[in-house]
Known about the structure:
Strand order of the largest sheet: 2-3-4-1-5-11-6
Shape: globular
Oligomer: single chain
Number of helices: 8
Helix content: 25-40%
Amino acid sequence: MIDFAxxxxxxxxxxxxxxxxxxxxxxxxxxxxxxxxxYKNADIVLVISGVGKIAMAGAVAYTLAxxxxxxxxxxxxxxxxxxxxxxxxxxxxxxxxxxAETQRRFYPQLAFDAPCPTTLPLITxxxxxxxxxxxxxxxxxxxxxxxxxxxFSSSELIQCLKVVSDNAESALEKINxxxxxxxxxxxxxxxxxxxxxxxxxRGSLPTSESALYKQLLEQFHxxxxxxxxxxxxxxxxxxxxxxxxxNLAGTKFENARALLAWLETQLEKHQYYL
Length: 274
């Protein structure tokens, strides 16, 4: 595990998506051997997952397990996506994410004034699609990112920001690393605005150690990682329900892990996805 607590995590699929951010923010690669390339400064961690849902899900879960002290982190998936007709280099914040394979749908909570348009839904595909037969943005990672990320932070702080890289007039095969880096470079200000907005929102969410959180810590044995996860889940409950308690009547848990699994189930009933 890593001994500092950043507030912001950015996940990209490709090195060419990461390079302009690494240079702009002077991020340094972690010296420890890692299954994913991880860069950081004092506040930001940037992770290159590789392409696809499995790679992204693994990157999110692995990275956040390395930073158990990061409570209520900002989690941002940034990178390229295709669209039928939107201009190359244009930028959108997803307000709906669909996994094309499972048909699970996720709805990021846009509880702020977004720095870019939020009018397009995003669909995550298991393989590249050159048909452009609907109005969705299309990528290969966002649904997996969101599904895992929501286990670690409040949904208001989990967002997907996409830059259009291909369309019906300029298809996938025309994409190259230089073009991607140029599009990302042109959108660094949008990413920074997004971080600023989410940082302000993060400051308004409940972060204190509630009586319930302290009670559960005393009742069960939590590892440092699971204690941080409990803190995040309790804060998410409070943010969604505007209450400090949930009903534990009639519930029995063998251990802390069982309690966390139950609490995640209760939160899912509030329909992060439909």
